[in-house]
Design a protein that fits this description.
The complex is a heterodimer of chains A (323) and B (176). By secondary structure, chain A is α+β, with helices and mostly antiparallel strands. Helices cover 28% and strands 20% of the residues of chain A. Chain A has a domain of 101 residues: CO dehydrogenase flavoprotein, C-terminal domain (Enolase-like, domain 1), CATH 3.30.390. Chain A contains 13 helices and eleven strands. The N and C termini of chain A lie far apart (52 Å). Chain B has 176 residues and is α+β, with helices and mostly antiparallel strands. Chain B folds into two domains: 74 residues, Ubiquitin-like (UB roll), CATH 3.10.20; 78 residues, [2Fe-2S]-binding domain (DNA polymerase, domain 1), CATH 1.10.150. Chain B contains five helices and five strands, in the order E-E-H-E-E-E-H-H-H-H. In chain B, strands 2-1-5-3-4 form a five-stranded mixed beta sheet, with helices on both faces. Classes of the chains: A alpha+beta (323), B alpha+beta (176). Chains A and B meet through strand 1, helix 2, helix 3, helix 4 and helix 5 of A and strand 4, helix 3 and helix 4 of B. Chain B: Keywords: 2Fe-2S, Iron, Iron-sulfur, Metal-binding, Oxidoreductase. Chain B: This is Xanthine dehydrogenase YagT iron-sulfur-binding subunit. Chain B: It holds the Pfam family Fer2_2.
């Protein structure tokens, strides 16, 4: 690991240090520093800041950025009213990692693309302009939606997929822009020409909380398909929230993990479902829309039919249709 | 940097480079070599220790960030000749072959009992809001952050099941 200056923030202003890299749980950043994928000259430790509470109000749940993944998954309100979020958190990482990993840090974790992690290889995300060997290389875990010619990395978070389905908003304290509330689609940017830029956050910006709106109507579930039954990243995951009334789907929110550079949500998929009676044929139509632009790169071609089957299974579970 | 940790009940001052992990403080600065360095990247769990009562990976923790914290390592549980119930159960059940993952397995199980007592659900819990069952399926899921390359998992599970009550597990046992 390269040496760095260590600063412990005692207030938000300390954390808004444009020369510093923020560290909280450290479960991803310390690993990246050991590999020298990240070599920050200055680390700003925000773990002593007052961002550890989950506050409930009439219209929202405000989750402090330092709430650990364990505490969030086990929180009574989350288990009762936002089970898709508990399920997503519990499907990720290990007990030890969830005890350290934080809400803010989980959102900002980096991809696990093998070329990003191998500093002997080109990677446009790690070394802009060096190329992307993943497209013709080892790409089993990589993206089929939202890619660019420069990068096919996936976002690895499970938590963020559930938050995307729940219409979460991220509270950011920026030294330049003040307090901002961004949806995940507003915060994450697609790789485009510059895969090294993953969010709209600038140096000095600090995630202080995540806000969930009132619990949605209907049933919620999170289904994750992976290479082993525990402690592995998603090949495909689906966070689903669907309400059925009088035999018709009245509301649907669907977000996908393992498929794209950010938690993937496509309103057109939900538009196919809402107002219709649930059926296997309808679910196929929704999958057609989700996957119409999907592009595999060889090893990860299987994700396209797997995403269809996983989406259909989730919709069947949430609507009571037998497949 | 000068920091103070309470390690297995005793205050310990160490002067360290900020790069030093909790695992390396234990092994290199305090001669507590029970915690093991397996992968050093948070994938194997051999470095598992308790920080303020919770299990974490010592290898992914910068010690400077834990100034003032209470750390429990395998050395804090028992001694040769005076083993903790869980340690004795690992011996009784052959919960290891080479033994390298064992301190991490035992510290992880200690943390896991506490998580059961707090009623935390897991990925395999059918009902998120119910008290979790102390079943083999739950133990396997909750211990998935600890790898054993000798594959002594049946003995590890048996040891964890057998010593649960002696180690303070209060949650109801699964009717199996």
């Amino acid at each position: 690991m390269k040496s760095f200056d260590y600063v412990r923030a005692s207030g938000i202003a300390d954390a808004q240090d444009t020369a510093g890299r923020i560290i909280a749980g450290g479960t991803n950043l310390i690993d990246l520093m050991k590999h020298q994928i990240e070599t920050p000259p200055k680390l700003v430790d925000v773990t002593r800041l007052e961002m550890t509470e989950i506050e409930q109000s009439a219209h929202s749940l405000r989750i402090g950025a330092l709430v650990t993944n364990s505490d969030l998954a086990a929180h009574d309100t989350v288990r009762r009213d936002y089970p898709v979020l508990s399920r997503a958190l519990l499907a990720g990482a290990s007990g030890q990692l969830r005890n350290k990993a934080t809400t803010g840090g989980n959102l900002l974790q980096r991809t696990r693309c093998p070329y990003f992690y191998d500093t002997t290889q080109p990677c446009n995300k790690r070394a802009p302009g060096s190329g992307c060997p993943a497209k013709e290389g080892i790409n089993r875990i990589l993206a089929v939606l939202g890619t660019s010619p420069n990068c096919i990395a996936t976002h690895p978070s499970d938590m963020a997929v559930a938050m995307r389905a729940l219409d979460a908003r991220v509270e950011i304290e920026s030294p330049n822009r003040g307090t901002e509330m961004l949806t995940l689609d507003e915060m994450y940017v697609l790789p485009g020409d510059d895969p090294s830029k993953e969010t709209v956050l600038e140096a000095g910006d600090l995630i202080t909380a995540v806000h969930l709106p009132q619990p949605p109507k209907g049933k919620q579930t999170y289904r994750k398909v992976r290479d082993r039954s525990s402690y592995a990243f998603a090949l495909v995951s689906v966070a689903g929230i669907v309400d059925v009334e009088d035999g018709k789907i009245t509301e649907a929110a669907l977000a996908f993990g393992g498929l794209a550079p950010r938690p993937w949500r496509d309103g057109a998929v939900e538009d196919v479902l809402v107002g219709e009676a649930p059926s296997d044929a309808l679910f196929d139509k929704a999958a057609d829309v989700l996957l119409q632009d999907a592009q595999g790169f060889g090893e990860n071609d299987f994700k396209i039919p797997l995403a269809r089957r996983t989406l259909k299974a989730v919709l069947a579970e949430l609507t009571g249709v037998t497949q | 940097m000068q920091i103070t940790l309470t390690v297995n009940g005793a205050a310990r001052e160490v002067d360290i480079d900020p790069r030093t992990t909790l695992l390396d403080v234990m092994r290199h600065h305090l001669d507590l070599t029970g915690s093991k360095k397996g992968c050093d990247h948070g994938q194997c769990g051999a470095c598992t220790m308790l920080v303020n009562g919770r299990r974490i990976n010592g290898c992914l923790s910068l010690a400077v960030m834990h100034d003032g914290d209470e750390i429990t390592t395998i050395e804090g549980l028992g001694d040769p000749g005076n083993l903790s119930p869980l340690q004795a159960a690992f011996v009784r059940n052959d919960g290891y072959q080479c033994g390298y993952c064992t301190p991490g397995q035992i510290m992880s199980a200690k943390g896991m009992y506490d998580e059961f007592n707090k009623g935390w659900p897991s990925h395999v819990s059918d009902d998120l809001t119910a008290e979790p069952n102390f079943s083999t399926a739950e133990i396997k899921e909750r211990m998935s952050g600890n790898l054993c390359r000798c594959s002594a998992y049946p003995g590890i599970c048996k040891a964890i099941e057998e010593s649960a009550e002696e180690e303070g597990l209060t949650t109801r046992k699964a009717a199996e």
